UniProtKB/TrEMBL annotation:
This is Efflux RND transporter periplasmic adaptor subunit. One of its GO terms (molecular function) is efflux transmembrane transporter activity. InterPro entries: Beta-barrel_RND_2, MdtA-like_BSH, RND_pump_MFP. NCBIfam families: RND_mfp. Belongs to the membrane fusion protein (MFP) (TC 8.A.1) family. Residues 55-185 form the Multidrug resistance protein MdtA-like barrel-sandwich hybrid domain. One of its GO terms (cellular component) is efflux pump complex. Residues 196-270 form the CusB-like beta-barrel domain. It holds the Pfam family BSH_RND.
Amino acid sequence: MAVALLALAGCGHKAPEANAAAPVIAFPVKAADGAMAGRFPGDVHARYEMPLSFRVSGQLVSRRVDPGERVKQGELLAQLDPADANKQMSAAKAALDAAEHRLVFATQQRDRDDAQFKQNLISQLQWQQTQDNYASALGGRDQARQQYALAQDQLRYTSLMADHDGVITSRQAEVGQVLAAGQQVFGFAWSGEREIDVDVPESRVGSITLGQAAIVTLPALPGHRYAAHVREIAPAADVSSHTYLVKVQVERADAALQLGMTADVTLQTDQSALAMVSIPATALFHQGERPAVWVVRPTDSTLELRPVIVARYGERDVLLSAGLNAGECIVMQGVHAVSVGEKVSPIAPPHPEDAPQ
């Protein structure tokens, strides 16, 4: 009876498992849309934007347009006081009339002296003086003519005209203000071509190329999609934001695409980008100098250290272009506390927000 009791007591204790699975936080990875990896916010601009200003100084006496107005090529936008320019043109016209009169007299004198010199009625010195007077009168007339043309231009420059169809985007001068030559009066955007200005982080600008295709969507225009392409990439980063300005030109802009609208630019990638996967930054390990991840084998739940190729590093995630397929289970946290061949039991992250999106 004592032997039987001892046998029953021994059945109450289980022998420890030789290969107990260690719990690890692991989760299946999801495919990352390569196009979404190249998505950036931006805003709509005109292909050509510039300040408008007078080419001469003066007092602004009238302003014909306000911000937001559309104007046609050749339309008068603003006017400087033309009084001084009119006086300069009148003086230049009087100087031109006098120069032309002197040229007529010098021409007549030259013709008379030419005839008399051929008959030896005047000396060669007198004839040469007549030729010199004629040349001086001719040069004076040409100079006066140029001064008169310049005065006409100065008078024309007191009127600010639109040199292209477009829209007034801003106003920097008021009536009565004395302006210097070249001082901005209006901001002006040409009609027609539109583009999206995008600020790209320095870590991602290397993957963008000139001519790269893109799709533009706008929150204000649901259902509208515009084909576009990368037209310009800034050669240097902005000193304050350390981002690169990328200009994406819209290929068929319509009237619905208004200046200043917020836009989403999705850069198109090749088909290989569609095979990318995204993992949390905490899941990345290293095998020597190469990046790697811990993969849970589905056959026996043991760990495999697999090298991967990183396409982009983000703030909280890493985009992989090779080495890992969507659906494979990898260790998300505690990558330094596991080893090759270790048997594990995958568990979900303790906080739902830590799970990969």
